[in-house]
């Protein structure tokens, strides 16, 4: 083997090694961000990927660089949901599609809870995606208002509270009643349009499962008994 051939083979090996390390870091970041949130410590990603800190920072010098590489694609799914909602001829169907799609993305066990509510400091590409998502949501609310499809006092800020509370339901029920969030979203939608009754898509969890969910969420039975909402 000539010196030139050996040098080229060595370069290819280095490139392949760099690509493998990059993919290992990205796979680890997806898993850690999904499980622990996108502010999870970077050393946890390093440990999961089985690489050194220097390798991480050579590929992604800042957290924002890593965010952009991992989160641009899932944010794009929200844009797709918005486009699908706007494509609906009926304003209510478009609005309900949006709410359900966003909550479904948040409920994805491989998703990233709270993604829409993150500002992504120092990550301009993600900030632009978030801006487009916000504009799309505003358009969908405006169309629904113009058609009289949702209550007049509903605003796009209400969607923040819907996704926030639904994330709590998803977290509390994921190992016990993983489809319970669908029933929850049906209640949310009826709250936006109270004159329309919709059949709930799944039955409520069994009482024992409900107790377990409360325990996982850190809510004691005593606190519930003293509150305004009665236990089932």
UniProtKB/TrEMBL annotation:
Gene3D superfamilies: Tetracycline Repressor, domain 2. Residues 19-78 form the HTH tetR-type domain. GO terms for molecular function: DNA-binding transcription factor activity; transcription cis-regulatory region binding. Keywords: DNA-binding, Transcription, Transcription regulation. Residues 41-60 bind DNA. The keyword ATP-binding does not apply. Signal peptide: none annotated. Residues 198-232 are annotated as: Disordered. InterPro entries: Homeodomain-like_sf, HTH-type_TetR-like_transc_reg, HTH_TetR, Tet_transcr_reg_TetR-rel_C_sf. This is AcrR family transcriptional regulator. It comes from Microbacterium ginsengiterrae.
